[in-house]
Protein 1
Amino acid sequence: MDKNIKKNNARTITLTILFVLILVVIALLIGKFSYSYLAPTVSDDVEGSGEVTASGDTIIFTKGNTLSLSANSDNFTTGGSNLTSTTNPKVKLMASSKTNSASSKYFAGVIIKNNTYSYTTTDKKPEIILTVKDENGKIVESSADNLTFVTVNDNLKGFDITGVNGAFNIVTDHVIATSSNKSEVIHTWTFTLTFVNLGTDQTENENSTLNIDVVLQKDKIPTTIADFCGNGDNLGNCIANYYNGLNTASNIYYHDANLTNGAGDNSYRFAGANPNNYVCFGSDDTTCPAENLYRIIGLIDGKVKLIHAYGATTDMLGTDEGYVSTYGSAPSYKGNGDLTKIGRYKWNKANNNTWSTSTTNTINLNKNFLAYLDGENTKWKNMIADTTWYVGGITYNNGQKSNAKTAYNYEVGANKDATTTVISKIGLMYVSEYYYAASEDYWTLPGWSSSGNDYRKSKNDNWLYTGLYEWTISRSSDDSGVAFDVYVTGDLSGGVVDHSLGGAVRPSLSLSSSIKFTSGKGTAVNPIRINL
């Protein structure tokens, strides 16, 4: 009897296991059938990653090749052919069996990086053209982010991106639709990059570089600091997030130990021709006055450092002490300030280059200018941190005749004169800040060289260059009557501190580390707004 019981128990266990296995198989089959009903079948030729929409449809984006141009004497000669690069990204939409139709929207844009091409003609004829054709072969003639559309000739039209870097949405909310799950719809775009052969001397662009990532995606491409920052966020964190979101397409460089020829101080610095780094400071007007536009040098030592965008006016600095005259006119000026109000100032009205005794420092900048801010609202002065300025100076060899890294090291870095300092709210830019404001391709050049292979080459790719003769805070340690300045041609020179003609002065300051972002995209017409 015990044997029969054991046999029955064994049979029961076996049947139970078989029953459970049958249930599992049925569940898997039901799940498979249900999934097949809800989702489309993705064919083997699909490239790229897909996204399932809320209705169960699938949209798949196929990334094209990176567009790049590198002109040299072998592939680009005067009077020869244009240089081109083309890619064809795709979007595929498939309807689910549940709906038998599908509709979705997507964005098309570009991320332009390492663009060192510049205009070589005085009238700035377009040289780098991006032509975009939609799925119907129609040329897109407007950009959501305001790229400039031009017609070069009957056979060449597109966006002029000469010298342009950054992220740009070109087409927004573009519709793709299909009415059958048995078929699929594919949008194939054509992006063509052209270096226009003008038939003139374009050797300035020899060995220039340019890389473009073409982006097709469901969401808007983040392009400005406002896409990474909200009202009340810490401004310094916003800058770091802006860089982390777009890297150098934001025109920000992170100067850690891995950045070739960088400062190595873990700062975030804006560089290039025209980054979106404008800040409205000293005014709450709906439209920020030009006199109140500043630009962010970078996030340095945990504080956001600003410099006046266009040049200080006599209303800002006064007409005493270092004041000489107003500019009136300046053929090389690139800014949007009023030259009838922008002042010329001596670095020091006495013939010595000690910054602590310069009345341009003590009176014009740290008395008159602060009083000017108080006249608007005392909150502005309260936003400015006290800063230790290293003003021991640098030699001609380490400043004017050196590259960015060497100037940085001897000015404020490991080899600085740490014994000669001034603590104040307002100063001027350092030589190395001017150097690092250019795109990284120029960081190995000297500020000046008799060969001409120097920072004159960077003037169209350096946002700190205004075209005015402009003082830096850095004195020459070789000559007690000289301080370094940016010359009108973009190179670095040494100027006599009490020269009768004077030079432009742009107040530079570090904001308190607690300053908050409130709004703005960082452009001149929509600058960043801040608050305590």
Protein 2
Amino acid sequence: MTEIGSYIPHFILLGRPRISQCRCVSCREQPPLVTHAWANHVRHSALLQCDTVSREMLFAHDAFELHEEAAVPVDGAALDVWQNDVNQACIDLLIVDGLSIEERMYAIGVLLNKLSKGGGDGFETMRPFAMANELMQLALGGAFRTLFGQMPAISRYKASYLRRLAKIPFRVSLDEHASKSLNLKLTELMLMSDGFLDDALREIEGSNEVSIFFDKHDETWINYFLYRCFHEVFPAIEREAYGQLFLDLALDYFCVRSLCALLANDVELDEDVVAALFAAWYRSKGRLGRDDHVDPLLVGFSLISREAA
């Protein structure tokens, strides 16, 4: 009988007992451990809405070391070859050494932009890997650092999405003091005039506490985006949606950093606090909404740039 690959990340193997016993707001509604099975491929995953999953996954350098086992094929559709190849190309760009997380994201945005303009059904499936390799060489040579640094600051997109963020009712697994502090800061943002909102944005962008935390925990964002690639098989199969899907990644980055910055003035950022913010964001991010931007790629690039306007 033909066998297929079945993959499970290291963080699930290590954390399964704790994840299975979690009783957070997400786990009271749905089990945290899930399996995505195709006729030719199986991925064992977990829901990032779960506070314990977030805590187990975000801060381990080997979180996405994959363990492979043989499995029996299941009935149903196969994982699309093109989708799998683009997914792996994005993963390759995430794990390349020597780049900041913004540069890795920039490379993914460029890759998706190029692939979205590819040929039709005859577009060769090896193309994503060839493009990713080409982009890696450019990035490692410093080209993306230069290009990214030359991008014009477009603060209006950040201000617009910051207002939307302030309107989301978050359920965050923090103590009473931290929860009240975050809700108060979000309410203040919601009521601010445009001028004061611009000032608040500059403070958020320049948060020293946030920079210190993520510099110390440099695996956090890589793990988060590896999770999205593994769990969702990002960026899906519809090439025409690649720009919007990249914008979705950029919104994750911008919004979670903003939540961390809002809380950092009153609460010390540690792994438990930041994991709770990631989980709360993942539970509620669907409420943010997105505009139908003419150039979502440009908007995404502006959101991951930390240069204050």
Protein 3
Amino acid sequence: MMDYNTQRKKLILPEYGRCIQQMVDYAKTIGDRAERQNCANTIIALMANMQEQRTDPDELRNKLWNHLAAMADYELDIDYPVEIVHHEEAKDKRERLPYPQHKIEKRHYGYIVESLIRKLSEIEDEDERVELAGLVANQMKRSLASWNRDALDDDKILEDLARATDGKVDLKADNFDFIPDNSLFGNVQQAKKKKRK
């Protein structure tokens, strides 16, 4: 029967390969401590050849000995020249990065546009609010166009803007000029023409 890697024990550090893992497993079975230490030094030399030498030599040495200990399940009885940090302890030191959890009502506009709309509601000066509302409405159109070209509807965008600001911003389609649809897709069409040539 063939011996496939999928049937073997899972590698702790796959970047070193199964041969290095087998050497580490063999080193654990050596009875003589001096011979075991010599075997570990040889394994470290092989592991160092696999690494790029861009890093600080002391940092690389520390990393390699810690990797050797991890590959041996911390059961290799040798004199380590560096302090060994157990894998579980290293995991505990890392804190999980907070990922922002924003509820976005209209995903096709995105979080930034929705935050602009919220800020728009807070502006007191009517002229400034209308001017900024025009910029936000055009950005909403760009966002909607990148999401789905077929769903472009100026009235729908103005309706969404009015609803999101609770009626504080109510632009009318007859007195507000959106950016033309062909300017939204002009760059894409020009790129296609260049590819055809």
Protein 4
Amino acid sequence: MVNYNNQFFHGERPLFGQEHATIVGTTFGKGESPLEESRHIKLNQSIFQYKYPLWYSQHIAVTNTIFEAMARSGIWYTVDIAVSDSEIQAPKTFRRSQDIRLKNVHFSDASESLWNCDHISLDHVQASGNYFGMNSSNIVADHLNLIGDYAFDGAKNVEMHHSTLVAKDAFWNSENVTIYDSTINGNYLG
């Protein structure tokens, strides 16, 4: 296991293909794809400042980490990722990824996030942005608070508990959606 503590990385793909690493208190500055194709990575108290941080990655655990606004299109084509107690400020996070577990995560700009993803768990997630969860499947949400139109358009197999959505046109073109003890405020549901 490789350990990176209190480091600063910049430039293109500084830890490309990194495997079996623990990364703590580290900032990834300007430079695309810092952890592309990484495997078995634990991130804690770190910051991503630029584009495409975790593409084609597997078995990732992220805690107390910030994805800044320019870390857009941050997590694509990734399998088995858990993010907890973290802030995602960038849009278009999570595309074509699977086995996603988010707990105590705040998306300040969730626009076009969680697209075409499968097997998603959302636990105490706050998000603001349009087109959240489009064409994704097998979603379980508990205490999701979402503000944004066109939420879960084309989604399949959605189960939601204790959640609040302020969303026009939520669940359009969706299939097999079950909502429990939740509030949906907006025009044209389903």
